[in-house]
Write a structure and sequence with these properties.
The chain is α+β, with helices and mostly antiparallel strands. About 20% of the residues lie in helices and about 30% in strands. The protein has 5 helices and 10 strands, in the order βαββαβββαβββααβ. Strands 1, 2, 3, 4, 5, 6, 7, 8, 9 and 10 form a 10-stranded mixed sheet that branches.
Length: about 260
């Protein structure tokens, strides 16, 4: 049968989601644990691959298994075999038409910036620290230029392997929560480093080095060399995935983690 699982992980000590022969990956840990519970090799597919240092509290994966277990057994059994920086939140049986990646209609990310003069010891590697004061209003003005369907070549990594750079951003909001500046972004899909490159541009605008219109100028250039820095991975969280009915899975709010 096919099962879908909700996964959370701290990306600090992983070389990204995707399994690698000589590096620690989230996929490698999850597949090893599920394979022991299933008593046969298990391969998993995720909704969106994350890079080194990127976190997730709403990653969705699926796996085909040849044995029957209760959903509770899949959850608790797998967690008992996972390292402390990865956890299965829920397990749900799905039909064979479900695909964690190709069935997804939208993906949601959050980028968290600690905006104060001193760095945090408690939030180290959980947020991005920016000591320069950020103006949320300027960042939101810039973000509005990126809404809709565009060629995001200027906002993707040079190494991005996607054949089509066109993506649709349905939501891009900037807010301040105390000392934190939060970037929430939703799209049908994302390019390699797309969120981090957008965050880099918005932070440059927020601290006053560039005007809000610069976000549009970078977008229209369709040239990564015209863009800004790639923001650090530490502030990025894979939040949630939207699927069509009947695949309505549980979602968790980042506020529950006090980040």
């Amino acid at each position: 049968m096919r099962i879908a699982l909700g996964i959370e992980y701290a990306g600090n000590n992983f070389f990204g989601w995707q399994i690698q022969p000589h590096a620690r990956s989230v996929q490698g840990c999850v597949e090893a644990a599920l394979s022991k519970i299933a008593n046969h090799p298990v391969t998993v597919v995720c909704a969106g691959r994350t890079d080194t240092g990127v976190h997730a509290y709403g990653q969705v994966i699926h796996a085909d298994v040849a044995v029957e277990r209760t959903l509770r057994s899949w959850t608790l059994g797998t967690n008992s075999l996972l390292p402390e920086d990865v956890s299965v939140l829920w397990v749900q049986e799905v039909d064979n038409h479900f695909h964690a990646r190709f069935s997804a209609q939208a993906r949601h990310y959050r980028y968290v910036i600690l905006n104060r003069s001193t760095r945090s010891a408690l939030l180290a590697k959980r947020v991005t620290w920016e000591h320069r004061s950020l103006e949320v209003e300027r960042m939101q003005m810039a973000a509005n230029y990126l809404l809709g369907t565009h060629d995001f070549s200027s906002y993707r990594a040079f190494a991005c392997q996607a054949k089509n750079p066109v993506r649709t951003i349905s939501r891009l909001t900037i807010s301040r929560m105390g000392e934190k500046v939060i970037i929430d972004i939703s799209a049908n899909a994302f390019l390699h480093h797309m969120v981090r490159n957008i965050a880099g541009v918005l932070m440059t605008i927020g601290c006053g080095k560039k005007s809000p219109e610069w976000a549009r100028i970078v977008l229209e250039a369709q040239d990564r060399r015209k863009g800004g820095i790639t923001a650090p991975a530490t502030g990025l969280y894979f939040c949630a995935v939207d699927y069509p009915s009947p695949y309505l899975f549980s979602k968790t709010a980042l506020e529950n983690y006090h980040i």
